[in-house]
Amino acid sequence: MTPRRLLVTSALPYANGAIHLGHLVEYIQTDIWVRFMRMQGHEVHYVGADDTHGTPVMLRAHAEGLTPKALIDRVWHEHKRDFDAFAVSFDHYYTTDSPENESLCAEVYQQLQKNNLIATRSVEQFFDPVKQMFLPDRYIKGTCPKCNASDQYGDCCEVCGATYGPTELKNAYSSISGAAPVRKASEHYFFKLSDPRCEVFLREFTQNADCLQTEAANKMKEWLGESGEAKLSDWDISRDAPYFGFAIPGTDGQKFFYVWLDAPVGYFGSFLNYVKKQATQGQSIDADSFLRPGHTTELIHFIGKDILYFHALFWPAMLKNAGFRTPTKIYAHGFLMVNGEKMSKSRGTFITAESYHQQGLNAEWLRYYYAAKLNATLEDIDLNLDDFVARVNSDLVGKYINIASRASGFIHKYFAGKIQDPQQSTASAQTLLRHLKAAQSEIAQHYEEREFGKAIRQIMELADGVNKYFDEAKPWALAKAGQDSLGPLHEVCSTALEAFRVLTLYLAPVLPRLAQSVSQFLKVSCTQWHLIDLPIAQQRNLDEPILPYQHLMTRIEAQQVSALVNVNKENLKPTPPSTAQTSVTATTPNPKNKPPLSPPTEAPLIGPSPTASISIEDFSKIELRVARIAAAESVTGADKLLKLSLDLGPLGTRQVFAGIKSAYDPSQLVGKLTVCVANLAPRKMKFGLSEAMVLAASGEGPGLFLLSPDAGAEPGMKIK
Questions:
Q1: Residues 525 and 415 placed together within one structural domain of the fold
Q2: CATH number of the domain bearing residue 673
Q3: Confidence (pTM)
Q4: Is the dihedral of CA 682, 683, 689, 694 positive or negative?
Q5: Is the domain of 245 the same as that of 325?
Q6: CA–CA separation, 511 vs 393, rounded Å?
Q7: DSSP label at residue 450
């Protein structure tokens, strides 16, 4: 396979707001694809930047008493913090307010001008007589000229979907000052998108170049119209002072590039800065081979479907006629819905990346859930918060992590942490491993084609097969059967851990941090795709034990998600009035007299007296499950505790510290069925994390008695 050379970008987040979970759909989608391509041995350069220019940034900076440059510097660090928290692996993250970008914008403009694709004409716009500035479309509101809906923006109606010019609005007003705007003429600069040269190129680019998804290509055809219809309009690329951006060459600082011209050029500006920094470290990258035509490199853009018009029409036409290379692929995705609806601040479902991280939620839970939902189309995806909890707990923890937690306990207890060579296993074990490894080509194809949901489903089906193999072998029974069964027990658990290694490699693009943890646990690399066919025995000395099992990933508790929703509602609480009067809305902290929201506290161990009543709703909150004690051992330094590993069937394995040492010999508990509280909040103890509670009966006299279900009950069954 010839390695591909790829320059990959995600759309640039605007420096006027926080990163939220809707944004993260795109960055996680891109990152999974980038990580997979790196695992395939391709040369990948993934660059991004903050989109920093425009009137909104200028006005927000003014409202906060900052210079625009101070504001965008602060926001850059906030955005970078959030991307790092969610393991988005940019090779370089930059800003569009850079000398590289300014130079490139000037070059693009001057080349278009040289090719007679820049025109000037007088434009009548709305002007705010109070603020003494021309108003961008989004800062003009009024009544829709089509359906008469009130409070609509100056470029489109959110009620009927109509598009129009701001001067067509009825009863227009400035959303900055509230004043009625006046019409005022100004000379503007236009990119002549209607030029026949652009039309001919764009028809070929959007319909025959295999650059766009089918749905996107069809939309471009609709916008382009039939040949000769001339549906494309020239594109206004200038704005008047005051404006935060790059001055257009030759205009004496009175005209500025519209942000949508310099923002996509910022992809290249970020890449050039990255190339310079790599050069200082002795790494040479031929920038022209990625930015100019005539090379075998690829330019890949990941974007939301709402900005297809800019990326599939304006951007490639501008590049083509300015002497730069055009995109190889433009991959668009749909929007994020939360619980089947648009994200809502009032419901607490307009969730910021920072709040997710601050609530202690694992970023890889969300990466997994998004991957399970994503495909190669423009369909919207839904973050159903109940499904989020159930899917992560059932699939990721209950099926995948469960394999390692179940097998490693036996390996350490009976075989000093050493696994055997799976090549020496019986036919059933060999068949299982061959089946797992034979899936790599199909899973790889799913990743490359961005069909992440298909990849996840196939991986989880494989995990089901491993768990079935493990359950049918009954290692707890083998352990109980004595010395003659230790050989089969060693084989079953070693095979399970080899299978776990393969599954980890398949999931590594989605769960990079977990893959690193598994690499340390098994003492082999779980991040290099070409090692899938190379078993543990061929990567290291099997006399060296694996590490003792530590929790690789915990379950999501429903109360964690509830706290996340509540804290995002909390951000809506009004703040005390400020002495600074402005009509610009900015993100504000909670009132100072409002105590910070605390995470849910653990339920007290001592409940109400026997005479106190509870409702059926209270009782229904307790989730009682049948559990099989898969392992039991004394706890060094604890007089009363036993450490239990509970097998809850499809819910996976839980670690519990139970105060039953005075009543039970650990060896007598293995294989015994009992009852546990499965939804008790994990409790951090001196000796480790206790993730559930087993139920026992006691009276005023001596004696402690574990509860056991009747014959026929199976691990994981719910007690009603």
A1: yes
A2: 2.40.50.140
A3: 0.79
A4: negative
A5: no
A6: 15
A7: T
Closest CA to 357 of 21, 56, 9: 21
**How does strand 381-383 pair with strand 336-338?**
parallel
Whole-Å CA distances, 260 to 10, 253, 290, 314, 525? 15, 18, 22, 9, 43
Helices (H) and strands (E) in the chain, counts: 23, 26
Residue 629 CB neighbours (<10 A)? 26
Strands (E), 96-181: 118-128, 133-134, 140-143, 152-153, 170-174
pLDDT average, residue stretch 575-587: 32
Residues 113 and 99 in one domain: no
Residue 155 sits in the same domain as residue 59: no
User: What tens digit of pLDDT does each residue of 396-434 get?
Assistant: 999 999 999 999 999 999 999 999 987 778 899 999 999
Cis amide leading into 242 (omega within 30): yes
Q: Are 17 and 587 in contact (CB under 8 A)?
A: yes
686 occurs within a structural domain: yes
Distance CA(570)–CA(595), nearest Å, equals: 11
- For 606: left if phi > 0, alpha if psi spans -120 to 50, otherwise beta; the answer is beta
Task: Using only the alpha carbons of the chain, give its radius of gyration.
Answer: 30
At 165-219, the pLDDT tens digits run 788 899 999 988 899 999 999 999 999 999 999 999 999 999 987 999 999 999 9
Contact criterion met (CB below 8 Å) for 621 and 469: no
Query: What token pair was written down for 682?
Result: 């994990």
Query: How far, in Å, are 48, 81, 95, 141 from residue 76 at the CA level?
Result: 11, 8, 8, 30
Q: Would residue 100 count as lying in a domain?
A: yes
First to last CA, the chain: 57
- Regarding whether 491 and 419 lie in a shared domain, the answer is yes
| Total number of domains constituting the chain | 4
Full domain range(s) for residue 136? 109-195+219-256
How high does pLDDT run on average in the chain?
Answer: 89
Domain for residue 566, yes or no?
A: no
Write the DSSP symbol of residue 280: H
Residue 608 lies in a domain: no
Name which of 675, 695, 693 is nearest 683 in CA terms. 693
The helix/strand/coil state of 315 is: helix
Residue with the larger pLDDT of the pair 496 and 710: 496
Which CATH number goes with the domain that contains 506?
1.10.730.10
